[in-house]
Specification:
This protein starts with a strand and ends with a helix. The mean pLDDT is about 95. It has one domain: 3-Layer(bba) Sandwich (FAD/NAD(P)-binding domain), CATH 3.50.50. It has about 525 residues and is of the alpha/beta class. Strand 1, helix 1 and strand 2 form a beta-alpha-beta unit. Strands 1, 2, 11, 12, 13, 14 and 26 form a 7-stranded mixed β-sheet that branches. Helix content is about 25%, strand content about 20%. Bound molecules: flavin-adenine dinucleotide (FAD). Flavin-adenine dinucleotide binds next to helix 1, strand 12, helix 7 and helix 13.
Amino acid sequence: MADYDYIIVGAGSAGCTLANRLSEDPRHKVLLLEAGPKDNNFWIHIPVGFNKLLNNTRYNWCFNTEPEDSVRGRSIPIPRGKTLGGSSSINGMLYVRGNPLDYNTWSQFGNRGWSYDSVLPYFKKSEHFEGNGDATRGLGGPLNVANMIEQHELLDAVIDAAAAEGYPKNPDYNNGKQEGFGYYQVTQKHGRRWSTARAFLDPARSRPNLRVETDALTTRVILDGKRAIGVAYTQHGQTHEARCGREVIVAAGAVKSPHILELSGIGQPDRLQSFGIAPLHALPGVGENYRDHFAPRMNWRGKLPITLNEQTRGLNFAREIIKYFCLHRGILTYTAGIVYGFVKTRPELEECDVQYHFAHASYATAATRILDREPGMTMTTYQCRPESKGSIHLKSPDPAAHPAIRPNFLAEAMDRQTVVAGMKISRRIMQNAAMDKYRAHEMNPGPKVQTDDEWLEFARNNGQTTYHVIGTCKMGNDKMAVVDDQLRVHGVAGLRVVDASIMPTMVSGNTNAAVIMIAEKGADMIKTATEQLQAAA
Ligand SMILES: Cc1cc2nc3c(=O)[nH]c(=O)nc-3n(C[C@H](O)[C@H](O)[C@H](O)COP(=O)(O)OP(=O)(O)OC[C@H]3O[C@@H](n4cnc5c(N)ncnc54)[C@H](O)[C@@H]3O)c2cc1C
């Protein structure tokens, strides 16, 4: 006897969106299982708290990559949200839809219904844009998108410097035309983080047909032959099973969704057997096609004490705290990147191939995130659509153990060339006369780095990620595809994956907006399938 119609695994960007949309119809009983606790940490809700959550093991899975030669043996941190809202509760809040080319590429792979024109209505449905948008932007949706509240003379100067170097100002990079520089738009409301827990889950919490369980780690999907019928999970030391009549929807994110499928016996049979897991359904693509935005960060010493390095100390900071709590303004509303840039590294390109984040702040090391004491600035550079592919797989049959993450960054020549070309453009922009008043000198990599080989070596030694893991349960119809274009797991009835892992290729931007779009579209697919079944009955 089924307890629920739908069981959603993971209350992240996708999971909260799905929980709202699927429970809109009071006839459908929905269970949402989240491994992490409630999102009641103070720093989740204050934008500048982003930094405080990067190493917080209660609200963040704090995964790390396996050391790889391509990054000179380093193990790179891969933070992922572990609370209601998932990564949207710990992310940098930058709202970026990507480029129409991204979705048209998915469609050209044979994924019906995923062209830009087909997905645009779902971006609009999710969104309420506070700024002046054209017809591509949404109004009245649950996800509040705001313009960056605070602007700053140094940030204006970078935008001017980019314009002087031939990269124009662009007032809205989310309307299908990305190229240029300007201030990021953010998922905030009145200066507070607007995670999917706030946007989608809160409005649905009082519905009697939605049950939300936190601290509930799903350990496997229960299969009856080739049909998913429920899940097993642990909560406060107890093991539970929940059964569903229609579908299990895995929305545990691009690190954990393939992990859960493998723990359930779905994946590469030899690999599963080697960990003592009975292979119940062979799918070679589970955990493959890993992609992320690999991002070296360049720093400059500033001339004037007007950067966040000084503004977040002593009396200055005390004044900012008062300003934030009285007016919901000031530097506590800042996020990880403040100014964006999208450029073409070669004029013949159809679309931009590099994205920048710029902030008037600098860290001594990216890992510790402790701001320098002297004035500083940081430009983060990454290739929009990297081609290098890595993997995520089990390294233990214990569901609580972290999987092995092997990104294989910079494996493709195009990725190496593009990241080097992108960093050279950063240096050129920062050397422009518009920055003379503000820039003292380049600290990292510094003037000693000149040749392409030296730039690449700097990237290998210093690059981190911008936290955009995708692709590990990719959508498609080739032998490495895990889900079809309705997001149904190939060969298993009653089981879908709906989250960042289904993206076949990287989107040109930060991934949260695209994940929410995927969940909006996935929810419609699930509801339509149910209606068709009911009509046929
Ligand atoms: C530090 C950081 C900064 C980022 N900055 C930005 C940004 O500025 N802009 C942007 O657009 N994107 C950003 N991203 C990326 C973006 O937030 C993610 O792509 C997006 O949130 C992924 O959504 P998801 O639903 O696929 O996974 P998630 O949101 O990660 O949700 C997965 C959920 O499943 C839960 N879960 C996992 N395993 C289990 C299990 N076994 N049982 C039960 N629950 C489970 C997790 O705890 C989590 O809550 C950032 C990400 C991070 C981590």
